[in-house]
Amino acid sequence: MAEQRRPVIRADAIGLSVALLLTILVGAALLMLFAQAGTAEAGALLGSAYVWRILRFTLIQACISTLLSVVFGVLVARAFARETSFPGRRALLGLMSLPIVLPSLVAVFGIIAIYGQNGWLARMLALAGVNAKPDIYGLGGVVLAHVFFNLPLAVRLLLPGWHSIPVESWRLSAQLGMSGWAIFRLIEWPMLRRYLPHAAATIFMLCVGSFAIVLALGGGPSAATFEVAVFEAIRFEFDPPKAAVLALGGLTLNIICLALAQGAIGDAAIGSGWRTREQDWGRRPLPARVMDGVLIGVAALLLAGPVAATVTDGVKGLSESALDWGLVARATLTSIGLALPAALLTMLLALPMVLAAARTGKKGRAAILRGALILPIAVSPMALGLGCFLILRLVLDGTPRAIFGIVLLNAIMVVPFAAAILRPAVERARARHDHLCRALGIAGWARWRLIDWPILRPSIGTALAMAAAMALGDLIGIGLFGDAKIRNLTLLLYDQLGAYRTGGAAVTAALLMLLIFVLYQVIERGVGGRAAP
Amino acid sequence: MPHLDVKDLAFRYEDMAMQFDLAVERGTFLSIIGPSGAGKSTLLSLIGGFEQPLSGQVLVDGVDITPLAPAARPCTTLFQDHNLFAHLSVERNVALGIDPDLRLSEVQRAEVRQSLADVGLAGLEHRLPGQLSGGERQRAAIARCLVRHRPILLLDEPFAAVGPGLRREMLDLVRALQARLGLTVIMVTHDPGDARHAAGRTAFVQAGRVVLVDDTERVLGSQMPDVRAYLGS
């Protein structure tokens, strides 16, 4: 018995050590922030009109973005729930998961290409004889980009709500002859009351902590979030104490939002596990079906438009003579060279913790592991990045510091997302095989090779692919740590957008999107094996 | 003319083709038994209007009800589970059977209370479904069936979730209501014991067809190989 238990304890120990290491690192980064902030006139800065302006803009844009995303998300999710069989439904739902891996700056480019001064919309209006110059910079552009990213998220978070409604409820509504309003009030609204708070809180948190979108589309110092202000304080003014104070401000806001979201998540957990079946909506009135079609069509257009614009403008931009191909090639290699080690490190951090959390029998240990796994979400990326930067500055210099810092930051930030992909598979594998493995004495390396790896392989492939894709879109790490010598595709795109070099930006954006797509497929299939979805 | 007449009703679910014929006289208690996956619940859904047949008719007193929406049919269905909305009180859940927008007159309110008393739930009007036992929830659902005043009551494995003792009690309640109101009851069950307890008539469904309809004792005593195999005797 003692012989068989030893490997279980060892797996625990590795996971716990990683969790401890991660916690110490994050703790040290925060301490460093506090130490730096202590040297600034923190009180004066926090009370200044500048900080209040940031807070005001952050909350206003987050409220509007969340409201639009959620309201539109409810309508679109409802349309998807009701229209269960139309050609392209699966493809459209697949499109809804695109914004997870699409770098914000690529979306920003696509949105400018459509809604900008010389964008498709302006050109179409000109053809129609309307001479409008849409201004995409400022509150409107930021909200538009946030809806682009968060409408699909809202749909993905809310659609399971409709699937959780038992088929008997729909049959009852038919049997009792309920009107559309009665169906909404009696069946859909009670469900939404469980699902909406979580969706809204999650989206609000993402909008409050938004960085690249506000940086690129904010259009001035009056439109900034704390993340943007930190970035500018370090990159343009190199004022670490000021940046540290701002980072702590952003961190506080983030933690408040997270606390609200956590409360909401608890609510959403109730009432799952009902049997569901696709509902037959064949006899719904035609106007309702047309309305569903319009909603789905508008959502599809909103999502596919910027992506299509990026591709076509990118192809067009290839003919531009001013393109510096050496620069683009170097940036591409830099992106890959930074993203792959970051993704590997993410896996080395996440997997032992997820395995240990699933296997440990001790509640305290499981709580520590789960806490460490969501820690990077609680600490805003910018605060963590700045803290790491301030620490590494003491021990490393130049290019090694940049490479180490970028890889480390990106690896840590993606840990919660990788863990979310790995956890269900690990728990399933454990529930199915743990007793059998222990009964047969399959343990340690043999268990990993024969039992765990074949089962977990597809999930590991997906998690690795997503980690690489997210690291490829990194702007925070490269922005904080990058020096003149290190520039990845995202930073190149940022510089090109800032200089209004639209042709070059188009090529970079399209290339980045293509690179993410290819790398994602290669890793998911290569590592995940044939079984990968 | 039979009260309910199911004629050449064709339906397809995935690979399984079904074709139902069934005639039921007014005031009958008919149990439907048969192996799982034979199409028992599908037959009930077709009568209730929740599924549309490929062809064929459902006649009630000689009138074709196939084109009617579920709410317009002269029948009401009691499901195995989820009959009540968890956020509405028992009283409001029953009231939905009278008006799905819950605008009730005083007379109608009194009727709701009376039907709750009829199923033995007097005094529990203001409870939420979560505060009731499984048996009490089904009683409340039966009360709603009563206020809808439909001559045909369809029961889809209604008491599968309650224990054997309570199940007999619920069956007796339905039988008493049936006798008093002259209802036609069709009950799908996976337990031949339910059919035996309910007496009346029984239909045996196999592979998407009604292969035998007779008095319950004779069906359960039938020497047909399929019936014997199903009953395990």
Explain briefly what this protein structure is:
Chain A is mostly helical. Chain A has helices at 2-38, 42-46, 49-82, 89-95, 98-101, 104-115, 120-127, 139-163, 167-176, 180-208, 212-217, 226-235, 240-268, 286-317, 325-359, 363-378, 381-395, 398-440, 444-472, 476-481, 489-498, 502-528.
Core attributes:
heterodimer; A: 533 residues; mainly alpha; MetI-like fold; 22 helices; 0% strand; globular; B: 233 residues; alpha/beta; 6-stranded mixed β-sheet; 4-stranded antiparallel β-sheet; 8 helices
Poorly predicted spans of chain A: 1-7, 265-278
Oligomer: heterodimer
Q: How far is it from the N-terminal to the C-terminal residue of chain A, by CA?
A: 39 Å
Strand order of the largest sheet of chain B: 6-7-8-3-9-10
Instruction: Give Rg of chain B in angstroms.
Output: 18 Å
How would you explain this protein's 3D organization?
With 533 residues, chain A is mainly α. Chain A contains 22 helices and no strands. Chain A has a single domain (22-528), classed as MetI-like (MetI-like fold), CATH 1.10.3720.10. In chain A, 46% of the residues are buried. Chain B is an alpha/beta fold and 233 residues long. Helix content of chain B is 34%, strand content 25%. Chain B is built from 8 helices and 10 strands. The model of chain B has no long low-confidence stretch (mean pLDDT 92). Classes of the chains: A mainly alpha (533), B alpha/beta (233). Chains A and B meet through helix 9 and helix 10 of A and loops of B.
